[in-house]
Amino acid sequence: MSVVKLSKLVTDAVAEAGDDDDDDDMDTSGPRKHVVPLVNTSSEVLEKVIEFCTHYEQVEPMKDIETPFPKEADEDGFELKQLVQEWYADFCQLEDKQVLFQLLISANFMNIKPLLDLTCLAVAKYIHKKSIEEIRDIFKIEKPKQSNDNDASEKKSEKEEKV
């Protein structure tokens, strides 16, 4: 039970149900049921969340990420392994970056601070030194529509006339 309690969302759901102990495995009347809302979380992402929490609790907690980042972090050859343990750096090396983004969103929603810190770091490293166009493409952000100064001044005049 300690693994899932890394998530504040899960901890709060269990507490709200009146179960604040770890004796679920001692309950002979059947499993306790707690509703934990995981909206739009794929099984692939949930498996990664569980993998992270299990490693964090049962093998090795992630060390705190040094801030501000060392000056070497701005260099091209800088790797996550220089800020976190190797397992955590490897954990974020995902072929599908959309999974990384969903993992970040899930860590935020489930309130798992170490996972949120790690995924934010991995995303920051991924977009570091990318152009504005590349970042727009990565996050599927549309380019803002160009408006000329005449259009803006005309709209302002129209608003003033209506007042």
Task: Give a summary of the structure in a few sentences.
By secondary structure, this protein is an all-alpha fold. The chain has 7 helices and no strands. The mean pLDDT is 81.
What are the main properties of this structure?
Potassium Channel Kv1.1, Chain A, globular, 7 helices, 0% strand, mainly alpha, 163 residues
- Structural class call reads mainly alpha
For the terminal residues, how far apart are their CA atoms?
A: 63 Å
Question: How many strands?
Answer: 0
Task: Give the ordered list of helices and strands.
Answer: HHHHHHH
Shape: globular
CATH class of the domain at 40-142: Alpha Beta
Named CATH architecture of the domain at 40-142: 2-Layer Sandwich
Helical percentage: 40-55%
Mean pLDDT score = 81
State the fourth-level CATH superfamily of the domain at 40-142.
Potassium Channel Kv1.1, Chain A
What is the name of the CATH topology of the domain at 40-142? Potassium Channel Kv1.1, Chain A
Describe the fold and architecture.
- By secondary structure, the chain is mainly alpha-helical.
- It has a domain at 40-142: 2-Layer Sandwich (Potassium Channel Kv1.1, Chain A), CATH 3.30.710.10.
- Helix content is 50%, strand content 0%.
- It contains 7 helices and no strands.
- Helix 2 packs across helix 4 (97-110) and helix 4 packs antiparallel against helix 5 (113-127).
- The longest helix is centred in the first third of the chain and has 16 residues, at 43-58.
- It is globular.
- The relative contact order is 0.12.
